[in-house]
Amino acid sequence: MAPDRPMTRPATALLLLFLILLARSTAAVPTDAGWLRENGTLIFHDSFDREETGNGAKAVGNGWNSATADRVPQIKQADLDGGILKIASATREAGHAAHLHHEAGFTDGGVVVRFRFPGLNKGESLQLGFVDRETKGVHAGHLCYGILSERGITLIDHKTGVMNLEIRQRRQPYLDRKEKLPADLDALLKAKQLTVPWKADTAWHELVLVTEGDEMRLSLDGLPVARHRSAGFAHPLKRWFSFLVPNTVWVDDVKIWKVK
């Protein structure tokens, strides 16, 4: 076998140049958490280091409100325990998944949330995103969301999709009759969302969800996971940040950032 030949100086120089360019290109791509810190203003932070006051709509405190707590005042759906917000939805009793929201107020910006699925129920999932109840023509002001389920992550534009009242009115008869949607309507709704594979676990994760213009992006633990463009993401005022939880989720830190 021939002995290994030492790398020539030109080859060594080319390899070094490649490594330098690779490092520069990697460093030049900021994370969305970094984008928020560098370009935005922190407008809200909650680490949940307190106790809740009962089961009412405002029991979590610090400006949080629940759209579903008063439906079942005898059931605790939000428990502050050792700096962790433990959400356990009484979905069947309330007729709706647990819904908590907080004032936000930005065009471009986002949230940083530390969360985990505790593994207490099958099919644990989390929907989080933005609402503007003052928007006309959109059911309950639902704008856009990131949805994490057992096997996937979805970014969805509700404003110009399934929550648009004209689209809902056209779509509902087909749902009632359990018929396929017309091809044009089906294609429209599919264009309003993007789903990528993801396998849920019970570890803690840092999630970053941002909107910039007509783009929504979601990152987990500093790594980009999904990005999608749709008109509803560019809504001029995300008044509320909201959680929608059909079963169980734990949250121990929330930051809301405004870029503009």
Please render the helix and strand layout as text:
Elements: H1 9-27, H2 32-39, E1 41-46, E2 65-66, E3 78-81, E4 84-88, H3 91-94, E5 98-106, E6 109-116, E7 126-131, E8 142-148, E9 152-157, H4 165-176, H5 183-191, E10 193-197, E11 205-212, E12 215-220, E13 223-229, E14 238-245, E15 248-258
Antiparallel strand pairs: 1-15, 2-5, 3-4, 4-15, 5-14, 6-11, 6-15, 7-8, 7-14, 8-9, 9-10, 11-12, 12-13
Give your account of this protein's structure.
This protein has 260 residues and is an alpha+beta fold. It has a single domain, classed as Jelly Rolls (Sandwich). It contains five helices and 15 strands. The chain has helices spanning 9-27, 32-39, 91-94, 165-176, 183-191; strands at 41-46, 65-66, 78-81, 84-88, 98-106, 109-116, 126-131, 142-148, 152-157, 193-197, 205-212, 215-220, 223-229, 238-245, 248-258. The strands form two sheets. Strands 1, 3, 4, 6, 11, 12, 13 and 15 form an eight-stranded antiparallel sheet that branches. Strands 2-5-14-7-8-9-10 form a seven-stranded antiparallel sheet. The longest helix is centred in the N-terminal third of the chain and has 19 residues, at 9-27. The chain starts with 8 loop residues before the first helix and ends with a strand. Mean pLDDT is 92; it is low at 22-28.
